Amino acid sequence: MKIIRTFLMLLLVFPIAANAQTENVSYDEIAPFSEGLAAVRIGDRWGFINENAELVIDFRNDLVWTKNADTKKQGVLGIPYPQFKNGRCMIQELKVNDIPFYGFIDKKGETVIAPEYLNITEFDKKVAIGIFVRQAMQGQNEIKLSIVDYIFTEVVLDINGEIIWPIHEREHALTDKRRYKTPELRAKLLHDDLLMFKRDDNKWEIKKLNQYL
Question: Which residues pair with 165 in a beta bridge?
């Protein structure tokens, strides 16, 4: 009988200890909830908790944020902490010459849009504006090394990563990390389906997106 009472007491104690452990986890930063998830930071790594304070996306170092971000800036430099918008959260991957390229994960933590953008907005209105990079092979040099050219196009894409409208090509050269600056986006959403963009002559045009959807 004594053994049974002891066993029952242990069953009562252990859940309380487990809950206390969950509640007593300390973080360096806790972001506001967005779409049922909140980003939490330990050091330079971020994860996501749900509304029960359970860690549902483990800590990782590729989520996009900028310390002391200027939230008035459009694109990656204006993001103060990771968050989900329309089921997508931005990630980064260092590629050519250690330059960051940007893509997105879903709420399972899986990459759904590959990091192929030099700068990009979040999915505020089910679309994003980004500078897409693609490689174009230009043949081989005299020592038979492949010559690769990079083509940059500012585009509108949907939450599945489909480019629904190539706005215009952008002139930009990838350089080493010490000289590289994130290119600014020239296009901006004015409304759900209304976009403005600056042409090469510095004049502005307005387009309705629904004609491309």
Answer: 156
Give pLDDT tens digits for 76-102: 999 999 999 999 999 999 998 889 999
Angstrom distance (rounded) from CA 195 to CA 207: 5
Comparing C-alpha atoms, which of 121, 125, 123 is closest to residue 186? 121
What lies within 8 Å, CB to CB, of 130 at 6+ separation is: 102, 117, 118, 119, 120, 121, 154, 155, 157, 185
C-alpha to C-alpha distances, 45 to 23, 53, 78, 100, nearest whole angstrom: 19, 17, 18, 17
- Per the prediction, the chain carries an average pLDDT of 84
Q: What is the rounded distance in angstroms from the CA atom of residue 29 to the CA atom of residue 40? A: 6
Whether 76 contacts 90, CB under 8 Å? yes
What's the one-letter identity of residue 54? E
CB count, 10 Å around CB of 193?
15
Helix residue spans in the chain (DSSP H): 2-23
Task: Please give the single-letter amino acid code of residue 199.
Answer: R
DSSP letter at 209 equals G
pLDDT of the residue at 3: 47
Q: Tell me the Cα Rg of the chain.
A: 23
Domain boundary assignment for the chain = 62-211
Q: How many helices (H) and strands (E) does the chain have?
A: 1, 13
